[in-house]
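User: Can you help me understand a structure? I only have the sequence.
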Amino acid sequence: MKGLYDNEMKLEFTSKTSNEAFARITVAAFVSQLDPTIDELSDIKTAVSEAVTNSIIHGYEDEEGIVRIVAKLFGNSIEIEISDNGKGIKNVEEAMKPLYTSKPNLERSGMGFTIMESFMDDIKVESAIGLGTKVTMRKKIGGNIENENLLEEA
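Assistant: Let's start by predicting it. Here is the structure, written out as tokens:
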């Protein structure tokens, strides 16, 4: 019954850009239990990177704070929550538009929500001014590959 795991990981780190790679690699190592393809792993790492960068750059700005990641495995899916206690997003709908940024002076092309949406199956953004932001992303690993293999064997 390969791929049927129930597991959870929690990670907290300071909002320093040097921790972005740490977060990305840690989530990638955790999801490896589901035996993702290289493309699936790359998608997850990119989405995590975008969300963590948002917490650091937009959430905390020049302040230091804590970024939290909770990753859960359900069967052949992963759910990843990335949250901060930063300044929050005034208008989530506007922030999720392509190329929108709260930091136009930085060389960035938006807040990355469009990228997260394209690489993950589902994304939800919750935010409150002065309290922070939580991004919840979900991705199914492997699609119906096992079911297709069973059908071919029959």
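Now, to help you interpret it: Residues 5-153 form a domain with the Heat Shock Protein 90 fold (CATH 3.30.565.10). The longest strand covers residues 5-14. Let me know which part you'd like to focus on.
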